């Protein structure tokens, strides 16, 4: 049984009920998510061979502080960094360190800022210098998977429609969908109900209703979908060491579809790749 609750009367913890937010909440999410998007835009100019991921982390921290926000990941469940930087075969939750990026790497940078109590959550892939065609193709497939998932969002559909749209496309492109991680409700809480699976069937999962806010963040592998978490308790990698990619947007369900809160103001949702308009 799925329960829905008006967000204004919901407790400040994840109870399993799905929150329905009002127009004022959507405005708060726009501000937080656009701050995150602007930070991700700014990173497009600094991600280059030789840059260490700790410098990316410091950039994200400073950007947030300069704009009255703080990174949600910092000290979250013991995590000590302001962002996640996942390189090549790292699926997600890569921890920034002093190792430099190398020519040909691909890196996912995941940023969540908390602004006035609202969580703006998004991630993008960045090519480091010139990358191989196989890596570029993976980025293209992963981004298209995300956008197909978003296109399935509308009142009356079920969360499974998002997963079906992603899985059908990614597997037709001979890639695989990671099952171990999923999207999630977001708003006043960093991680909330419902879980948004990136695979499944259209008639499965909770019904989407106007006022729901959640992330869609498919992780797509060139090889098999299986992952393992390293001894640090955070870093997830592909078991077969194949390349992995992820893009993430935060969306809110509207009366006739959805609003993407984290769209790039500079048109850089796919940094380093050809413009969709081109």
From TrEMBL:
Catalysed reaction, written as an equation: Release of N-terminal amino acids, preferentially methionine, from peptides and arylamides
Positions that bind a divalent metal cation 2: 121, 184, 217, 248
UniProt-listed GO biological process terms: proteolysis
Alphabetical UniProt keywords: Aminopeptidase, Hydrolase, Metal-binding, Protease
Matching InterPro entries: Creatinase/aminopeptidase-like, Pept_M24, Pept_M24_MAP, Pept_M24A_MAP1
Gene Ontology molecular function: any one: initiator methionyl aminopeptidase activity
Cofactor binding summary note: Binds 2 divalent metal cations per subunit. Has a high-affinity and a low affinity metal-binding site. The true nature of the physiological cofactor is under debate. The enzyme is active with cobalt, zinc, manganese or divalent iron ions. Most likely, methionine aminopeptidases function as mononuclear Fe(2+)-metalloproteases under physiological conditions, and the catalytically relevant metal-binding site has been assigned to the histidine-containing high-affinity site.
Positions annotated to bind substrate: 93, 191
Keyword Transmembrane in record: no
Cofactor(s) the record lists: Co(2+); Zn(2+); Mn(2+); Fe(2+)
Protein EC: 3.4.11.18
Any single Pfam family the record assigns to this protein: Peptidase_M24
PROSITE patterns, alphabetized: MAP_1
Principal EC category: hydrolase
Binding site for a divalent metal cation 1: 110, 121, 248
Domain Peptidase M24: 27-254
Similarity comment: Belongs to the peptidase M24A family. Methionine aminopeptidase type 1 subfamily.
Role noted for this protein: Removes the N-terminal methionine from nascent proteins. The N-terminal methionine is often cleaved when the second residue in the primary sequence is small and uncharged (Met-Ala-, Cys, Gly, Pro, Ser, Thr, or Val). Requires deformylation of the N(alpha)-formylated initiator methionine before it can be hydrolyzed.
HAMAP family: MetAP_1 (MF_01974)
Quaternary structure (record): Monomer.
NCBIfam families: met_pdase_I (TIGR00500)
Protein name per the record: Methionine aminopeptidase
Natural source organism: Rhizobium leguminosarum bv. trifolii (strain WSM2304)
């Amino acid at each position: 049984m799925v329960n829905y609750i008006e967000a204004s009367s919901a407790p400040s913890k994840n109870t399993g009920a799905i929150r329905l937010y009002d127009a004022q909440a959507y405005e708060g999410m726009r501000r937080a998510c656009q701050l995150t998007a602007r930070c991700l835009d700014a990173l497009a100019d600094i991600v280059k061979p030789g840059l260490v991921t700790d410098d990316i982390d410091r950039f994200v921290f400073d950007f947030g502080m300069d704009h009255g926000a703080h990174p949600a990941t910092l000290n979250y469940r013991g995590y000590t960094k302001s962002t996640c930087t996942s390189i090549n075969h790292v699926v997600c939750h890569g921890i920034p360190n002093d190792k430099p990026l190398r020519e040909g790497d691909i890196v996912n940078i995941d940023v969540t800022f908390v602004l006035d109590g609202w969580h703006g959550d998004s991630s993008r892939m960045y090519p480091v210098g010139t990358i191989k065609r196989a890596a570029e193709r993976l980025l293209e497939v992963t981004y298209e998977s995300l956008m197909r998932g978003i296109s399935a969002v509308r009142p009356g559909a079920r969360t499974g429609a998002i997963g079906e749209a992603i899985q059908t496309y990614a597997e037709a492109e001979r890639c695989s969908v990671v099952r171990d991680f999923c999207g999630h409700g977001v708003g006043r809480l960093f991680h909330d109900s419902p879980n948004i699976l990136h695979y499944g069937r259209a008639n499965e999962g909770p019904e989407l209703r106007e006022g729901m806010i959640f992330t869609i963040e498919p992780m797509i592998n060139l090889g098999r979908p299986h992952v393992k978490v390293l001894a640090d308790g955070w870093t997830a990698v592909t078991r077969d060491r194949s390349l992995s990619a992820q893009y993430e947007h935060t969306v809110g369900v509207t009366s006739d579809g959805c609003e993407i809160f984290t769209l790039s103001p500079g048109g850089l949702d796919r940094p380093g790749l050809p413009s969709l308009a081109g």
